[in-house]
Amino acid sequence: MQDLTTWTNAIRHDNLGQVLKSYWQLTKPRIIPLLLIETAASMWVAAHGQVDPFLLLITLLSGALAAASAQVINCIYDQDIDYDMERTRHRPMPSGRVQARDALLFAIVLAVLSFTLLTTFANLLSACLALSGIVVYVLVYTHWLKRSSSLNIVIGGAAGAIPPLVGWAAVTGSLSWAAWVIFAIVFVWTPPHFWGLAMVIRDDYAKVGIPMLPVVVGNEATAKQIWIYTLLLVPTTLLLVYPLGVAGALYGALALGLGSLFLKKAWQLLQTPEDLTRARSLFKFSIFYMMLLSASLVIDSLPITHQLIALGQAQINALATAFACL
């Protein structure tokens, strides 16, 4: 503890710019864009490709504020282990640039702003869902599971699957089966996504006693779990096409193509689970996968896409009729 005190007393802000930078870093901004992409995709599907631009802006802003609040609280809670890991000890909390009291106040302000914006400009359901995302991430994942169970990312990963529910509720004021399927897609995608990274930084987690799956069971067993979850992911994505029918052939084809690539990555890792280059590659591809899958949902939902597909089908039918008459 003396070393931690010495370290935290060593760094101070010199100007306002450094203060703002530290608080920005507390929110872990690199994590947030993917959550917003998932939210936007859900909104487009819920609105049948015609989203109110103002509602979209408010929902994404509120979602960013809620995610930022959760990450700030995570930084407060994990500052002890962040200090012990070389890759994280320069973060604002363990380095002493931001004190816990100030960070907690910042997190509360972010959460209140998120809840207020959604309640005022969307609806209470979406606001409560965003708030529940913070609670699940902080209490279920960070406080309860992260330091106690190798299932931490499986159960706690539900927090990362809540943003699509927020987006759907913001548009419709309710939650349909389609919304829960999008939730399930993100939920099933999260373990193979995160475990790929956990395999790469396994030693860091082991050093601070965090029971991430690769630390507890090793890389070979983790690679098997990644393979199983990826196998589950592909058919889950197709539920939006059948039986729900909220996505069409374009999304279905892209989901199959992206899923096949994900399965290939997972299979390659399964064959050589100690190859950390492949683990890192799978992790990076998983981000690319979710971004493109979300984009394909948006494109598939657009009225112009439906018109073009209908036009193409009409042309094909006309050609088939012409050939039949020959």
Number of strands: 0
> Average pLDDT across residues?
92
User: What pattern of helices and strands is seen along the backbone?
Assistant: HHHHHHHHHHHHHHH
Topology-level CATH name of the largest domain: Tetracycline Repressor, domain 2
Reading off the top of the CATH hierarchy, the class of the largest domain is best stated as Mainly Alpha
Biggest sheet, open or closed, and with what strands and sense?
A: none
CATH architecture of the largest domain: Orthogonal Bundle
What ranges have pLDDT less than 50 throughout 5 or more consecutive residues?
1-10
Structural class: mainly alpha
Distance between the termini: 88 Å
Give your account of this protein's structure.
The protein is mostly helical and 326 residues long. It has two domains: 20-175, Tetracycline Repressor, domain 2 (Orthogonal Bundle); 177-326, Four Helix Bundle (Hemerythrin (Met), subunit A) (Up-down Bundle). The longest helix has 26 residues, at 213-238. The protein is 79% helix and 0% strand. The radius of gyration is 22 Å and the shape is globular. It is found in: Cell membrane. Keywords: Cell membrane, Heme biosynthesis, Membrane, Transferase, Transmembrane, Transmembrane helix. Its EC number is 2.5.1.141.
